[in-house]
Amino acid sequence: MTTIIHHDDCLIHDTGPRNPECTQRIGAALGGLEGLRGLEYLPAPKATTGQLARVHPELFQAALRELEPREGRISVNEEDTIMSRGTIDAALRGSGAICFAIEQVLAAKTDNAFCITRPPGHHAGQEVVMGYCFFNHVAVGARHAQASEGIDKVAILDFDVHHGNGTQAIFENDPSVLYVSSHQMPLYPGSGYAEETGNGNILNLPLAPGSGSKEFRSVWSTLGLPAIHGFEPDLILVSAGFDAHRRDPLAHLEVEDDDFRWITEQVRGLAEDSAGGKLVSILEGGYDLKSLATASRAHVEALMV
After folding, report:
1. How do strand 202-207 and strand 112-115 relate by DSSP bridges?
2. Residue 105 has pLDDT above 80, yes or no
3. What domains lie within the chain, and their CATH numbers?
4. Contact residues for 17 (Cβ-Cβ < 8 A; gap 6+)
5. Does the active-site annotation cover 163?
6. Res. 120: pLDDT tops 80
7. What is the per-residue pLDDT across 204-223, written as a single tens digit (0 to 9) for each?
8. 3 state SS of 236
9. If we measure between CA atoms, which residue out of 152, 144, 204 comes closest to residue 174?
């Protein structure tokens, strides 16, 4: 069984009428799953202060809460990283979703899970807000898993079109976490060069603008997937950004729905081979609503096989 984790608090975070990271993204991703049978839907809890503190210091958490406006919107760090009333609750649901999903998988209550939440998380550093991101959900999830019995090594696979600079910065000196990312380069945030290898636990797979299915599948087949296989993780987490899609307005890759289906099938196989099937993904980017819906469906259909 595949479980979908979501909460309506993610709809309260208001980025304004022209921001690509909009409320409608949630409806698009959930709508793409309509008609799929056998899915379980569960509400995302809020992450606790302690869960977040494994990545984000408590003083940083408190400062963000103080910063949240009671009305209107403000920019935080960057012009288009917007905070409104309800932003912190939405972000807490994102980190809470992945922690809860991991608990469900580790307890064998579900085979795998996809967290459909916003705002995204992979640009957020330990004390850095940027790229629409406030808390780094996948990093919080990795540390939450490692606090559980039997989970020592975690692999994070990131196919968002933007490099997950926050995730890399959090783990680049920690050999217990492998971070593998494909992304367009050059592109925001300007990191993710192949030469950035951390403590031997970072593998960046930059793709030139215009790259499509052939290039995407090639770097994962020859480099990314073998690295994860060799790492022998106890759990695999996926930063599932669908903005590498050819229709997405924020980048210039030409990835198709079938490529997202393919990479999900591959990572599911890796999870079954080395991690007892333990696999959790969380929504990151994806800003064309139609392609977000169809790519989310392809991703979940591959999780359900």
Report:
1. unpaired
2. yes
3. 2-304 (3.40.800.20)
4. none
5. no
6. yes
7. 999 999 999 999 999 999 99
8. strand
9. 152
